[in-house]
Specification:
elongated; N-(1-d-carboxylethyl)-l-norvaline Dehydrogenase, domain 2; six-stranded parallel sheet; single chain; Rossmann fold; three-stranded mixed sheet; alpha/beta
Length: about 290
């Protein structure tokens, strides 16, 4: 089967844009979505609509999927008419949904049994970058399978990372979500407090945007993770003072601050473990000491 024959399963807000980029790049594209109407814009451009995931796989040397979650992935891959219901024939399966590493490892085992190669390749950056081919794609799987996937993935993302074994791409995506959503929760919580103090919230947010809060890695504190430097840039005892000041203001006005309380407890744990005079990044190694 020709390497330019690609199947795409899951024609949603992200998948539809990625599939169109593959059509624009000249790939022969077979598509499937549980909602047949979602395929119409692509079939109008020359894609072939399929009735089942198995039909997509049968027509493709590379099968890609981008689905809402674990249940949909299980059905598309392992259902009665799923991708893995046909002989793999050395097809490459690129699973791009946000699912857990354990599910990916199980799918990789099933894929090998069926004759497929498998990588997990979740994505980040949103709808706009999906349309322009500027996604970040984090891949778990064998290096050779990653190399085989790169020509097609490069039409979808401008940052491709091989993270390690099966499931490490999934872990990286989940970690991205945890960090980002924790940040969003913290910003929302403290902006709500600013509103409670009758401040100009847009002005407040603009200050945050143009300080280290708005660009949290601009000072490269994260470089200390691996270089082992724990000499204080921002000492834990001092930052606890700042965080406690924030908690005191919120307590004074009866603002609810669960995120801040969790952050304070995290740094207190490091301080209690003997790291009070070290840099804030010492919390990276508290459980390893």
């Amino acid at each position: 089967m020709e390497s330019n024959q690609v199947g795409y399963i899951g024609i949603g807000r992200m998948g539809g844009r990625m599939a169109k980029r593959l059509l624009d790049a000249g790939y022969s594209l077979a598509v499937y979505d549980a909602n047949p109407a979602a395929m119409a814009p692509l079939t109008a451009l020359g894609a072939r609509a399929c009735a089942t995931p198995a039909e997509v796989a049968a027509q493709s040397s590379i099968v890609m999927s981008c689905l809402p979650g674990p249940e949909e992935v299980a059905e598309v891959m392992e259902g009665p008419q799923g991708v893995l219901s046909i002989p793999g024939g050395n097809r490459l399966l690129i699973e791009m949904s946000t699912i857990g590493p354990a599910q990916s490892r199980a799918l990789a085992r099933r894929s090998r049994e069926a004759g497929f190669a498998y990588i997990d390749a979740p994505i980040s950056n949103g709808v706009g970058p999906a349309e322009t081919g500027e996604l970040t794609i984090m891949v778990g799987g064998e290096r050779g399978d990653f190399d085989r996937a790169q020509p097609v993935l490069r039409h979808l993302g401008n940052r491709l990372y091989h993270m390690g074994d099966i499931g490490t791409g999934n872990f990286t995506k989940i970690a991205n979500q945890v960090i980002y959503l924790s940040y969003v929760a913290s910003v929302c919580e403290i902006a709500r407090a600013a509103r409670g103090l009758d401040m100009d919230v847009p002005n407040f947010i603009d200050v945050m945007r143009n300080s280290v809060a708005g660009r949290p890695m601009m000072t490269h504190w994260e470089d200390r993770f691996e270089n082992g430097d724990r000499v204080a840039g921002f000492q834990i005892s001092r930052l606890l003072k700042d965080l406690q000041l924030g908690a005191d203001v919120c307590a004074e006005h009866a603002f609810d601050i669960p995120v801040l309380e969790t952050v304070i407890n995290t740094y207190k744990k490091a301080s209690d473990a003997g790291h009070a005079d070290l840099d804030m990044t010492a919390i990276y190694s508290v459980d390893q000491d």
